[in-house]
Amino acid sequence: MPPDGPARRPILVSACLLGISCTHKGESKANPVVAALATDHQLIPVCPEVAGGLPTPRPAAERSSGGRVRTADGGDITDFYRRGADQAVALARAAQIERAVLKARSPSCGCHQIYDGTHRGVLVAGEGVTAAALRAAGFEVVSEEDL
Ligand code: SF4
Fold first, then answer.
1. Closest ligand 1 atom, residue 46 Cα
2. How many domains does the chain have?
């Protein structure tokens, strides 16, 4: 049985970083550094895009400077992203997480840079929908590249 107390403080983690095949391509982004956090933390996986009601696989999407999330053919799927963000924030509150470790550059989970919404591979400073919602709710958010 794992130890209780501060050594096992919960961390919310992008599910793809923990080996779940939930990216838009149906792949995982398993990261051994993230997995190693389980030594002294309770890791709580969440995929906001799936939690928001999107299927896997699904079309690639990007968040524009105006905050809307669109697929390459212009489909506006912002509402799915917002629902997923709400779910992630609710989970973070319920679990009283210490912080969130989220996948870099995702339109949901990215917390430093995201693609600019043009679907041309252009990165800009910005946050994904869930990263922004968690930060607005007062939670610390980092990417796997910050570990
Ligand atoms: S929404 Fe987040 S957890 Fe889900 S696949 Fe994208 S980066 Fe991973």
1. 3
2. 1
Q: What is the pTM of this model?
A: 0.95
**Atom number in ligand 1 closest to CA 29:** 8
Does residue 34 fall inside a structural domain? yes
Predicted pLDDT at 107: 98
Ligand 1 atom, smallest distance to 22 CA: 5
User: For the CA atoms of the chain, what is the radius of gyration?
Assistant: 15
- CA–centroid distance, residue 29 to ligand 1 (Å): 9
* Contact present, 71 and 111 (Cβ < 8 Å): no
CA angle 146–140–30, rounded 5-degree value? 45
pLDDT band at 11 (very low <50, low <70, confident <90, very high): very high
How far does residue 22's CA lie from ligand 1's centre (Å)? 7
- Give the pLDDT band of residue 74 (cuts 50, 70, 90): very high
Range of the domain at 20: 6-146
1 within some domain: no
pLDDT above 80: residue 144: yes
**Cα end-to-end distance, the chain, whole Å:** 26
